[in-house]
Amino acid sequence: MKLLKGLAVLSTFGMLLVLLGGALVTKTGSGMGCGQSWPLCHGQLIPSSINLELIIELSHRLVSGGVGLFVLALAILSWRRVGHIREVKFLSFLAFFFLLAQGLIGAAAVKWGQSDFVLAMHFGISLVSFSAVLLLTLIIFEIDKKFDADSVYIKKDLRIQFYGLISYVLLVVYTGALVRHTNSSMVCMDWPFCYNRSPFDFSSYGIYQWIQMGHRLAAGMVFIWTIYLFIKVLREYKDDSLMRTGWLIAVILMIVQVALGAFVIITYVHLIVALLHALVISLYVGLLSYFLLLSSRSAKKHKD
Length: 304
Hints:
GO terms for molecular function: heme A synthase activity; metal ion binding. Interacts with CtaB. InterPro entries: COX15/CtaA_fam, COX15/CtaA_HemeA_synthase, HemeA_Synthase_type1. It is found in: Cell membrane; Membrane. By secondary structure, the protein is mainly alpha-helical. It is flat and about 60 Å long. The chain has two domains: 147 residues, no CATH class; 155 residues.
């Protein structure tokens, strides 16, 4: 089990690097740093001309490939060692399949180009793979009772809320990625509202304004929903430390995320702030995924 735990931890942190690397490529406009060549750079094993964009893009490819091997090994080993646990086989498949899909979409974008609306799916697909790897890691650490999640029972009404929230959050993540890929980050120079032009401006500039403000509105709804669920958990799960602590962390992450969203505008899309913005939403989705797992188990208990 020591090997499996180590592999799980490495894969989880590796997937975070993949997510941040993808965000870095987008933020720095390095997607074509290797030209229209994949997996090589400009058709060369060792590029003769090296610049910052090439280094960023090539580093992302190398990290993604290396992490892909870790995730594949984790999936195979988990299947063999702990495949008797109900969720393991599905999560093993999900982790590698979506990481592979993310790589193929990236390769297709380099070779043939893709619309901004297709490229915006890239981050969300990576998030699904990261969440699956994180859940596998938590399940592996559950086996020797490092923490007790078996006693948690989530009521049906709250389970429905969790299912709805994570589905909605993935949609919001997509709108955020669309903001990045359409270069709409600074079309609204104010926060939280946009005073640049009429809300009924449907020119090409106006569409970008709608994308930006649509994302802000959608993100605001996630913030409100998270606060509401936190209060609900505090009232209904007074003796459940896992639920209360988990949703306290969720609220903190969401407050930080909203603040970072504002600082992205204030700092004119400072790279570090933008990467932190991507990191925090990744952690938030990972946390929601765990409560999704607990909800699935609770539903099975009720059926039994």
